[in-house]
Write a structure and sequence with these properties.
3 helices, DUF5658 family protein, DUF5658, 109 residues
């Protein structure tokens, strides 16, 4: 008996869209954090603050990319229909941080 597997295109599109959102959120968070630090603001996340103090923005980039790699590894343990939650959970706080960064940069500018 030959088995065929169908792939839900909506599932694939949602997964790609969510990982695209992660990429946008990552770049925007790094950019607005760097701009905010240059404007005299301080990093409020203690882990990120220690990384930036020790390794600069390059350290923050490595930390964020490490987080993405961990998320990619974690998603493999989930059933396909639940995998989009991983990038959503990653992008959401970064997008909130971007909004806060933009607001605070506007306040000090």
């Amino acid at each position: 008996m030959i088995q065929t597997h169908t792939v839900d295109l909506l599932e694939i599109d949602l997964d790609r869209a969510m990982w695209g959102l992660v990429a946008i959120a990552l770049v925007a968070d790094i950019a607005t954090t760097a701009h905010g630090l240059e404007a005299g603001l301080t990093e409020s996340n203690p882990i990120a603050s220690d990384v930036i103090d020790g390794y600069g923005m390059a350290g923050m980039v490595v930390m964020k990319l490490g987080t993405v790699c961990l998320a990619l590894a974690c998603r493999t343990v989930l059933e396909k229909q639940y995998r989009a939650i991983v990038p959503a959970a990653l992008a959401a706080p970064w997008l909130v941080a971007v909004c806060l960064n933009v607001y605070l940069i506007g306040v000090v500018a």
